[in-house]
Design goal:
Blueprint lengths: L1 H25 L3 H27 L2 H31 L4
Length: 93
C-alpha cells in the first residue's frame, strides 16, 4: 500500500511540475507566470518529496524530504515577491 501511495504522489508531483513549466511558457504576463511557477511547482515538489519519503521509509530520508519541503515553502513566496517587485519597479509589461 505504501508503494501505491508513493507512486501516486510522485506521478501527481511530476504532473504538477510539468504543468507549471508549460504554464510558465504559455502565460502572457510576468505576474501570471510568477503565480503559476510559485504555486504549482511548490506543490509538485512537495508531492515528489512525500513520495520519496514514503518509498524509502527511513527516518533520515523522511527528515531530509521534509526539510526540502519546508525550505521550498519558505523561499518560494519570497522569491516570487522579489521577482514581482523587480518587474513592477522596471515597468515590465
Amino acid at each position: 500500500m505504501n508503494d501505491l501511495v508513493a507512486t501516486v504522489a510522485v506521478l501527481l508531483g511530476t504532473a504538477l511540475c510539468v504543468l507549471s513549466a508549460v504554464g510558465v511558457m504559455r502565460m502572457p504576463d510576468v505576474y501570471i507566470r510568477l503565480q503559476v511557477a510559485s504555486k504549482a511547482s511548490s506543490l509538485g515538489v512537495a508531492l515528489l518529496m512525500i513520495g520519496v519519503a514514503l518509498h524509502f521509509g527511513e527516518l533520515s530520508v523522511t527528515i531530509r524530504a521534509l526539510l526540502v519541503v519546508v525550505f521550498l515553502f519558505l523561499t518560494a513566496p519570497v522569491t516570487a515577491h522579489v521577482i514581482g517587485r523587480a518587474a513592477y519597479i522596471t515597468d515590465t509589461p
